[in-house]
Structure formats: C-alpha cells, structure tokens
Amino acid sequence: MSAEVIRVSEIFGPTIQGEGALIGQPTVFVRTGGCDYRCSWCDTLHAVDSEYRHTWALMTAAAIMDRVAELSGDSPLMVSLSGGNPAIQPLGELIGMGRGRGYQFGLETQGSIARDWFADLSVLTLSPKPPSSDMVCDPAALDACIAAAGDARTVLKFVVFDDRDYDFAREVAGRYPTLPVYLQPGNHTPPPPDDEDAAVDMTGIMERMRWLVDKTVADQWFAATVLPQLHVLLWGNLRGV
Ligand code: SF4
C-alpha cells in the first residue's frame, strides 16, 4: 500500500466550476496546499502561504476519495484539483482510484512542474502566469507539461489585467496553435484569507471584462474564449462555494 500523503487545504462542493473550459459544470474541489509561485495577485493565499500550513491536512488518496464520495453522495462527477500548485503533490494514486469509481479529474496548474499522471486527467488546464503576476513563465517547463499530458485534453488559460498580460497570452498561445485558449479578466481584490466577506471590486471586474472582450475582438483573436470568473460574479470572494 502506498505511504504517500497529500497536503490538502480544503475539499468542498459539489458546486460549479467557475472558470475556464469546465465553467458551469458541477464539481467537487480538492484544493492542495503549497505553491512554488508567489503571484502578486494570488487569490488563494490560504493554500499557498506557509503561514496557513497549520490549516492544511495530510491525507491519503483513499481518505480524500472517501470525502469526495461523501460530498457527492457516491455519484461520480468531475473532481477539480486545484491549489496552490496541485502538481507539487503526488496525485497519481488519487486519480487512478477515483477513475476506478467513475469519477473524472480536471487539474489547473501554472505549468511549472510536469507529472506523468497528467495523462490520466480528463482536462489539464495550464495557466501560465503573465507579467502582472511578477512571476516568470518557463517555456521548457510548459512544453514538458503538454508532453506529459499526451492525449489528455489540454487547454490554456490566461488571467489578463493589462496590455502586457494580453501580449503575453497572445505570444504563448501562438506557440501552441492546437490548444484551446481561455482568457479571464483579473480580479484586483484578492481576499484577505481570514476575511471571507471581503468586498469584491465588481465594477472593476466588469470594466476589465468589457475591455478584454473589445480587445480580443478588435484583434481578431477569434480562437480565444473570453470568460469571467463565474463564482466571483455569484458569490464574490466567499470561500468553499
Ligand atoms: Fe497563487 Fe496560482 Fe500564483 Fe500559486 S500559481 S501563487 S496558487 S495564483
């Protein structure tokens, strides 16, 4: 039996996936703890910063699967693996176990760490971080992630705050012309992790959404899909929904 344990920040749902290729689809979230990045606008610091490590649990794949099954009433659905960077964690056993019970798995990562079990995902969302994050995207690591996914459905998702982010998205997406692209306006108001009711700058989000739609259309980037963060529109920055 495997002795590997997974660092988990939170497991919640069922709710809907609020972003990207699976937007609107019912899902249970498994959010892992820890990230190799520190994006300037990270909206999940509670799953990133070691200050919150005491809130993370070490769980076996079987224990996570039991919790997912409990939340979903034993009815298989899409499990969203998120973080932090879930690629840090040993998730292969969990994915294999869940698939054996009829569950599907989607995972989102910035594309800094490739894992062979990406090939067992139903959807791999690679979200390279743009200049506004103050992080630097490693093209070789992104290539390795795409190669590791093999035939698994792989999509690109970009958070866009400004012109530099847009140009970055255009450039990176241009390197992978066969991959679907999702653009998402940035949210300037990440919540203080202890304040779940922190107000969201909804006016700013909608302005950036309109700006991004106008820019994408004017640029004739017709292969791109522009989407808001649906969960933010519905629930603001509330956690666990
Ligand atoms: Fe936060 Fe994602 Fe950046 Fe990690 S990669 S710091 S989870 S936004």
Write up what this structure looks like.
With 241 residues, this protein is α/β, with parallel strands linked by helices. It has 6 helices and 9 strands. Strands 3-1-2-4-5-6-7-8-9 form a 9-stranded mixed sheet. Helix 1 (61-71) crosses helix 2 (92-100). It is globular. The protein binds iron/sulfur cluster. Residues 35, 37-39, 42, 44, 48, 83-85, 110, 129 line the site of iron/sulfur cluster.
Instruction: Indicate the multimeric state.
Output: single chain
List bound small molecules: iron/sulfur cluster
Distance between the termini: 33 Å
Q: What Rg is obtained from the alpha carbons, in whole angstroms?
A: 17 Å
Briefly summarize what is shown:
With 241 residues, the protein is an alpha/beta fold. 28% of the residues lie in helices and 22% in strands. It starts with 5 loop residues before the first strand and ends in a 6-residue tail after the last helix.
Fold topology:
Blueprint: E1 6-16, E2 26-32, E3 57-59, H1 61-71, E4 78-82, H2 92-100, E5 104-109, E6 123-126, H3 139-149, E7 153-160, H4 163-175, E8 181-185, H5 202-218, E9 224-226, H6 230-235
Parallel strand pairs: 2-4, 4-5, 5-6, 6-7, 7-8, 8-9
Antiparallel strand pairs: 1-2, 1-3
Helix pairs in contact: 1-2
The structure holds iron/sulfur cluster.
Keywords:
alpha/beta, nine-stranded mixed sheet, 6 helices, 9 strands, 22% strand, binds iron/sulfur cluster
